[in-house]
Amino acid sequence: MVWNSNILELYCLKELVSQNSIDERLIRQYKAILSKYINGHYSLEQCKELVMKLDLSLNPLLLCLEILATDRDDVPVFTCKKEEKTYSKKRFVCTWSDYEDKRLVMAVHKYGTKDYELVAKYVGNNRTKSQCSQRWERTLNPCIDKSAWTEEEEEILVKAVEKYGTKAWTSIANCLQTRTDVQCRYHYKHVLNGNTPKALKLRNAKEQAKRAQYWNNDDEFFDLIDKVLVESRDFILPK
């Protein structure tokens, strides 16, 4: 998934953006205010005043304040309460805390997504680069599109699966850029390739397209007729 240099602003605004009733122009103005605050051009009070003039919630600004504040803290040491543990076959995994999420957002804001080992060191709590990568790419990244799939996206997904197969979901997700590997895998296996009405309709359309393409080739058509007539007296054209 493509990394955006304005990732902190986008992350803080994602809840506001999800409210489709808010004018896009106001969102852009809010984003500009956050950018000024992050870069130290405006004070917190100045930003609050500007946001109030937009008649929008202060929550994105306050969230931005909390995330930036984590940069002043020491790297956390590993702490995992019993109720935060989830068990797998091999080991327990400590669920991510709200504070860790904010540290991760701040780390990505500072270092980007090229070096997750550096990001993991910043997050602390013995988080590995793999854990940080998966948490960001599959959950926190505000560029993840969680809306309904479009027909264009589904076409790209199908072509990507034809190219990479059903094992390289990260490569497939990169073809869409705004969908995660998990989203791509689930949508392909359970929506496009399962037993849902949409999947059955899609498979039927594919079969008809292949059949039409095959029988449009006159040479192959008549060669097959000759072969069948030699082997059997019965020949039924496909519907």
TrEMBL record:
Please name the InterPro entries in this protein's record. Answer: Homeodomain-like_sf, Myb-like_DNA-bd, Myb_dom, SANT/Myb, SANT_dom
Protein origin, superkingdom: Eukaryota
A family per Pfam: Myb_DNA-binding
Give any Gene Ontology cellular component: nucleus
- Signal peptide start and end residues: none
In what residue span(s) does the HTH myb-type domain sit? 94-140, 141-196
The SANT domain covers which part of the protein? 144-189
Q: Where is the Myb-like domain positioned along the sequence?
A: 96-140, 141-192
Against PANTHER family, the record matches this protein to: SNRNA-ACTIVATING PROTEIN COMPLEX SUBUNIT 4
Q: Could you identify this protein by its name?
A: Myb-like DNA-binding domain containing protein
Give the source species.
Trichomonas vaginalis (strain ATCC PRA-98 / G3)
